[in-house]
Amino acid sequence: LTDSEAVTAYANIRQVYDYYLNVLGRKSTDDKGKKIRVIMNYHKYKNQVNACYSGQADYSGICLGPKGGVEKCVDILGHEFTHGVNRHIWYPVYANQSGAIDEAYADIMGEFVQHYTLDEHAENRDIGANRKFNNNYTMDDYIENHKDEPPTEDNDYGYVHKYSQIISHAAYLIQDKWPHKLCLGEPSALFYRSMQYLGSNSGFQDCYWALLQTVMKTTENDDPNKMIGAIADAFLETRIMSSRGSGTRTVTGTVTDKRTGEGVPGVTVEAYPVNSNKCETYTITNSKGEYSLK
Fold first, then answer.
1. Cys-Cys crosslink for 206: which of 122, 125, 202, 220, Cβ 3.0 to 4.6 Å?
2. Are 264 and 289 contacting, i.e. CB atoms less than 8 angstroms apart?
3. How far apart are the C-alpha atoms of 243 and 260, rounded to whole Å?
4. How far apart (Å, rounded) are the C-alpha atoms in residues 164 and 269?
């Protein structure tokens, strides 16, 4: 460990701390000014390029391995800091979908801290990160490949890093489909504020509802429909909110506002079998108010 590495780590974690404070209005991981401690040459990562979050009663630990220069990567420090924020707001169970959301939000917020926007890579490409925002992962991948094996350390607690890319992909699409040029801090505020609507066992669909709630309850959104449309389209394109019925017939339609005749995005549309009150499948309307149920 050199003095310059320690100085770099301090400067970059300060940038993360200041972003959360000045852009999002949050004072440290717990919003109460909890101390942040950067632990260099972390003993569990001997000769590894890695980092992790370690929450303690009196401080939040950002633990960095000795290899790869991770202290130089603002997005990685922001990623680990965000794990601490997640722990204090919605305390995700680190397994399966809730663990994947935890990892996705850490990637998303870390990138916003570094670049104010989501680029191709979910973590700094210089150290060989293999996750991307602009990827082809969808809910189909999760359903097809995520079998009933219990989450363990050997399978990355239900492949949380791999399937975090489904939510990261949705975030990238939301940014791409947003109805106006994004202002500084606007996209990060959307995801940060949505954390309050997540719970410890939240799944991918809960993430959609959390983002929707955030838009609906943000008073400065005079006309939220276009923003809801961007979120709906992203979660439909990643097939998180797509219909998955077992029927052979597809029913399509459009939900419109009676006053304006315009399509209404983000509306839940359900299908029930004849003589049954049990919903068989459901979906949401896209940005044009259109839906497709199978």
1. 202
2. yes
3. 27
4. 27
| pTM strictly above 0.90 | yes
3-state secondary structure of 256: strand
Rounded to 5 degrees, φ, ψ at 138 are -135, 175
What is the mean pLDDT of each successive set of 10 residues along the chain, which is 294 residues long?
85 96 96 95 82 92 88 93 97 97 96 86 64 90 81 94 95 91 80 97 98 86 84 97 79 94 94 82 94 89
d(C-alpha 63, C-alpha 44), whole Å: 9
In this structure, the strands spanning 59-64 and 51-55 are: antiparallel
b (16+ CB within 10 A) / e for 164-177: bbbbbbbbbbbbeb
Q: State how far the Cα of 252 lies from the Cα of 5, in Å rounded to an integer.
A: 58
With H, G, I as helix, E, B as strand and everything else as coil, classify residue 254.
Answer: strand
Instruction: Find all residues with CB under 8 Å of 193, minimum gap 6, and list them.
Output: 214, 218
